[in-house]
Amino acid sequence: MIRKSKRVAILHSAARIIQNKGIFNLTLDAVAEEAGVSKGGLLYHFPSKEALVSGMVHHLIQQYVDRIEDSASKDKHHKGKWTRAFMQETFYQVQTNKDMEASLLAAVAVNPSLLEPIQKAYHEWQEQIENDGLDPVDATILRLALDGLWFSALFNLAPLDNDFKEKILNALIEKTR
Fold first, then answer.
1. CA distances (Å), 62 to each of 72, 100, 116, 117, 162, in order?
2. How confident is the model at residue 92, as a pLDDT?
3. What percent of the chain has pLDDT over 70?
């Protein structure tokens, strides 16, 4: 368990470097220093920069999926519950999770094929959304709206204040009922 927590700490350290210093400052030496581990300790978990970025993407996807599934399992309404959970989790990502943004930006910069796990996940999520008891076109429009909110925040495109974003989320969720 200690190794797993050290591994996760390394992943978060890499994300902090990207967030605070930019993608081009993501080096194994910088990550080791930020994580408070030796370079050998870092290499034990991640033998290359590509492996580190791949680890970031996989870790964050798994967290994302776990939270969506947890939220969907607690939803008392069968129709649209997966879509609502996806939208709420995506909104949460927009508001709080800069690690997700950092890992995707790192994947694009280091090796775009590292995005394959998120592309696969999105394909699976789209299938879930299309089979969630809602009109598949309407449900997809809702997903794309949340994706747009996320990408708008990611690239700081006409940023919206938190209260307004919350109203948007509530209006979108209302369309799933």
1. 15, 11, 14, 10, 26
2. 78
3. 94
CA-based R_g, the chain, Å: 18
Amino acid identity for residue 170 in this structure:
N
> In angstroms, rounded to a whole number, what is the distance separating the alpha carbons of residues 46 and 60?
16
Q: How far apart are CA 31 and CA 16, in angstroms?
A: 9
pLDDT value for 99:
62
Q: How far apart (Å, rounded) are the C-alpha atoms in residues 121 and 61?
A: 8
Which residues, including other chains, have CB under 8 Å from residue 80's CB and lie 6 or more apart? 132, 133, 134, 139, 176, 177
**For the whole model, what pTM was predicted?**
0.79
- Phi, psi (degrees; rounded to nearest 5) at 77: -100, 125
Per-residue confidence (pLDDT) for residue 100, from 0 to 100: 67
What's the CA gap between 85 and 87, in Å, rounded? 5
